[in-house]
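Researcher: I'd like a candidate sequence for this fold, 419 residues long. If you have to choose between options at a position, lean toward the conservative one.
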């Protein structure tokens, strides 16, 4: 993998602390400033104190206590002046993600740190639904979401919230791949129901299998039928894993059909929960501008409205602690552990699925006794008797020793031995 980054750099602890402290100084200080108009304050000092030297030297915790509100979208127009310091840090994070990781040109994107990947996916579909309604004169029942059967549940949730239909595209049961025939079948089915406008959600790492869709399979078929579409990449799980491989990743903004990307920081990046990232091309996010939010400087273009600036600072601190090279090394180690596990399962003849550049191994449920599945907290595809799959996610805390214990128990339970 070529690692050429413009914004994503590794910084020393002193540099990180100084940057965040300066950002907090640039924000309103509710302890000292005469700020009478905001329905906000720092966290209650009777419960959350920031007097200890320890906390003052912890940039993320200091930001939580300062409690900046990042309402709105800080890449578009103006924003609340009171929190300009930490808003600048959020913009720096978005530059690292949009420009360095996903290869968009400087200044050609909008986005924000969302409360998770679910909202970021809903945000994308909301934007494109409104674009079709406002600019194309579409009717609600003429707009449809195309996404695979392995797609995250946030997509049917978005369909329900936004009153859209979801055309579920079948995948190959062995390879979990999309095929042109399956996409064509889904498209023709949608057309037969009167659908005219299409929102594609293509996966970069599905939740259960870690499988990665080739978005070109979607777009080639829709171009063949000359129908309007928008393409969103759901990289909520895979966004911090899949691009860090020894291959040239094409699932990014170098593909002109990609309009937006979701990525979660609270999965592989180990940021606090409630930390998603949404980025899209310029000219799109204004489709969801809430003009009624006139008391908010710049108004609002996000689903959530008020959100914690501390989450943006957390992502910034994590990214600048590692830098791109150390992050690549970390993901490489995790992939090596995943390779080791797959080799053991191969020797035992255990049936499983694994996307080669991902760190999820999904095993056929009949291959793992239920007591072992419970002991190691394997996650089922379905929490009922119909379940067919159990997954292992090779997160940072999952080491070879844990995997050895799992393999040992699996061998003992089945009286198996490696070939």
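Model: Candidate sequence:
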């Amino acid at each position: 993998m070529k690692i050429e980054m413009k914004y994503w750099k590794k910084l020393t602890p002193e540099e990180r602390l100084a940057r965040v402290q300066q950002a907090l100084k640039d924000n309103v200080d509710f302890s000292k400033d005469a700020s009478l108009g905001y329905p906000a304050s720092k966290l209650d000092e009777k419960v959350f104190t920031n007097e200890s030297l320890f906390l003052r030297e912890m940039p993320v915790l200091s930001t939580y206590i300062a409690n900046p509100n990042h309402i709105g979208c800080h890449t578009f127009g103006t924003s609340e002046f009171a929190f300009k310091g930490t808003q600048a840090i959020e913009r720096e994070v978005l530059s690292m993600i949009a420009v360095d990781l996903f290869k968009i040109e400087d200044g050609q994107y909008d986005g924000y740190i969302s409360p998770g990947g679910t909202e970021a996916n809903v945000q994308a579909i909301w934007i494109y639904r409104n674009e079709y309604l406002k600019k194309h004169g579409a009717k609600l029942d003429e707009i449809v979401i195309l996404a695979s059967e392995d797609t995250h549940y946030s997509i049917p949730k978005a369909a329900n919230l936004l009153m859209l239909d979801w055309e579920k595209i079948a995948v190959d049961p062995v390879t979990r791949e999309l095929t042109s025939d399956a996409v064509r079948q889904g498209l023709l089915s949608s057309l037969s129901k009167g659908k005219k406008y299409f929102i594609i959600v293509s996966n970069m790492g599905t939740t259960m299998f870690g499988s990665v869709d080739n978005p070109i399979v979607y777009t080639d078929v829709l171009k063949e039928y000359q129908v309007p579409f928008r393409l969103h990449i759901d990289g909520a799980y895979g966004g911090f894993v899949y691009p860090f491989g020894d291959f040239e990743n094409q699932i990014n903004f170098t593909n002109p059909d990609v309009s937006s990307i979701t990525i979660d920081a609270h999965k592989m990046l180990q940021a606090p929960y409630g930390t998603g990232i949404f980025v899209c091309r310029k000219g799109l996010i204004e489709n969801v501008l809430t003009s009624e939010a006139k008391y908010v400087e710049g108004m609002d273009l996000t689903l959530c409205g008020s959100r914690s600036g501390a989450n943006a600072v957390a992502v910034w601190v994590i990214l600048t602690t590692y830098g791109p090279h150390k992050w690549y090394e970390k993901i490489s180690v995790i992939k090596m552990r995943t390779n080791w596990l797959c080799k053991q399962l191969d020797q035992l003849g255990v049936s499983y699925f694994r996307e080669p550049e991902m760190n999820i191994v999904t095993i056929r449920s009949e291959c793992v006794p239920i007591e072992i599945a419970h002991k190691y907290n394997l996650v089922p595809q379905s929490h009922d008797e119909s379940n067919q799959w159990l997954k292992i996610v090779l997160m940072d805390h999952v080491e070879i020793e844990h995997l050895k214990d799992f393999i040992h128990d699996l061998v003992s339970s089945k009286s198996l031995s490696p070939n």
